[in-house]
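Notes from the 1:1 (GR / supervisor)

We went over the backlog. Supervisor wanted to see one worked example end to end before approving the batch request, so GR pasted a single chain during the call. The sequence is below; no edits were made to it. Supervisor asked that the structure be written out right there so they could see what the output format looks like.
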Amino acid sequence: MVFFRPLPWEYGIRNLLRRPLRTALTLVALTIVTLLVMVVLGFVRGLDRSLTTGGQPQTVIVFSLGMGENLEYSSVPMRTADLLAASIPGIQERYGRKYSSPELYLGTKVNRALEAEPEMGLVRGVTPTALLVHENVEITQGNWPRVNEILVGRMAATKLGLSAAEIQPGRTLFFEGREWTISGTFAAAGATYESEVWCRLGDLQQAMKRQDLSLVALNLGPGGTFQNVDLFCKERLDLELQAIRQTDYFASLQKDYRPVRLLSWLVVALVSSAGVFIGLNTMYGAVIGRIPELATLQTIGFSRRAAILSIMQEGTILAMTSALLASVVAYGLVHKAAVRFTMGAFELQIDTTTLLIGYGIALFLGIVGSLPPAIRIFRLSVVDGLRAI
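Structure output shown during the call:
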């Protein structure tokens, strides 16, 4: 059963084209609003990705007791790596080599030249076993570092405020009073490691005049359990160690950045509210100028619901067109744009989730922005509409 006869689809489109300037201005405004929403969502998605990709469920981090999540302040004896590998059953092993990675991790000032202004960078002293433990790390260019050489993550340039050309193999960086030659670059599937500079553990210990470690990372095999590692740390009180799953470590970092994420969602809400007011202003202007026309449509047989549906159709067309334009701009100009933060750097992610949320908000703007003008039509009598000027 047909309850009402809707207005032709092309009627709403023709009305948009009859006011090209107003339509264009509204389209630009809604596109900017939707673009800002997508950029903020891309920021949140990129931050989440950088803090979740690095965590592996089979990896356990052993570091100083009472350090919380501050690995750069941790200090454990150099012999800890050998003790863990020899004492804990179930550590993954290949060809007689245990997946146990002793590491020295710190934040230090790094610059491209002695006279240049230094930037705070993240440096990690490692052994070749680090490539076994951190499975998502792969060398993309160059070779493993030799004496006084370093591997640079693909996002380290952003963290250090340098250009991509300045971290190519053969270039040099200065930190801890030494000149280091870049031997290659590495990627880590978007994890925070990509913002770091890696060098040989012994070289970094010599440069810093330290003989200790910051942490030991272990990969557990099928027969290994986190409880075994935790029990060893609690029994060896002389070493003052604690253990944490790598996934739990990155989850704790996510909690630290929860205020930033909440602020980002607040920005999304505020920007969306501005978009609603833009839609209200535009649609109200359109309705006030067309009251006699809409009243005439009712006199020739079209119901008020048909007129309301037509107005909502116009708002939806404008909003979804703006979303399409915003997604093209966001993906073309913003996707994978690098952003610095305290833990390193990450890339904005204009992914499927970001686009779907952006399109959903745009659809919401189109519908909600059209409702008050539509209600005005519903309350206005046909006689009053015909008398309106």
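Supervisor's comment: Residues 102 and 216 are 5 Å apart (CA to CA).
Batch request approved.
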